[in-house]
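Hello Y.,

Per our agreement to keep a running log of every chain we model this quarter, I'm adding this entry. I've kept the format consistent with earlier entries: sequence first, then predicted structure.
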Amino acid sequence: MAPLALAQFIASYAATTMTVSISAIADDLGTTVTGVQTTITLFTLTMAALMVTGSRLTDILGRKACFVGGLVVYGVGALLAALAPGPLLLTLGYSLLEGIGSALMIPPIYILVTVLFDDVATRARNFGLVSAAGGLGAAAGPLIGGLVTTGVGWRASFLLQVAVVALVLVWSRRVVDPVPRGPRRSFDVQGAVLSAAGLFLVVVGILCTGAYGWAAWQVWVPVGLGAVVLWAFSRHIRTAADPLCPPWLFRSLVSNLGLVTQLLQWLVLQGAFFVISVYLQEARGLDAIRTGLVLIPATIGMLASAAVAERMARRHSLRGLVRTGFAITATGVALVWILVDAETSLLAFAPGLLLLGTGIGIMLTASVTLVQSAWPDPAQGAISGVSRSASNLGSSLGTALAGSIVATTAGGPPFATALGVLAGVAIAGLGVALLLPRAGQPA
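Predicted structure for the entry above:
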């Protein structure tokens, strides 16, 4: 479990550590906050767009081969980003190569956890370990990134990722796939292209709102084209002989609702981290390390709740944990929205961020276990890719949505508006969680 958890940690760390280095990177590379926001969004978007493809490759190439190959691609991308002389190479290394590497190495992690452990409680404990590692990476990313950026420089944060990847590669020799590989499957090229292109167009359209506003055709043309491409993808998987993603995977109410909760919780987490980090640096003038320190309560909350994930899974239903998590998260975002203004102390962030982290930590493991446990072992490759794609799409949409609101809000406080929208998204997540059926009910 150790190399699997550490790999999940570094991928999640990469998604949030950039938020506290936005100003430093923009100044060093001669770009803007919006340019760095786009780079962050493209990283999570690449993961989301290719996660199902990466999951399918585990069935063709083998789980360990994809895991190791993804680590190598990720490490090369982190090294390129560390050496980037300008925003173009940073985008190539961080957004594309690290995103592709993550899409290859993350699905095998969740597949292996599922097939190695049969009973729900033990599986929840190990999902808890992996989810806690991911949550720790996401929550500690701003703090570690702030320390490294302030003490050494933002490039050192990427070199740290290279070192961790090297450690995981050495450690991965102990990883064994317990399930014999079956007949070699074909790769659905058309499905892979359609799914990646559809997601890409939708998120790029939302990103364009920062430059053109929500009413511009430059926004709705790519969003509309993305919707058409995704519709074509849904038609394709219903008629293809061996599709990238089997259509029956979306016939489970429990799984479908669980996927939506995963998307929304990561949207709120990534969006909140982005908004608060930009506010602290742009409006309050904080450097990277002080921005990371302000976000510590969220880290504490996520770690504390993830540490008791197994105990909570034994005592409470998974759907109950997801509902509780969204309720606490919505309260946390609302508290930040209500308590913080230009005149308040930085301590005013603490109550809301603590609740935000606690709520996210409670439901991270529960949502993953809920989705993965809805399917038997032969379907784990497919559902793992869809599950990770939903989470990373949520992260990508969170950064894009929050950034666009901050950039386009006129006549009012943009950061408060963005937090209000994120609180509304958390409430919507609670509404989705309330629709989850009880265990034993027809799904």
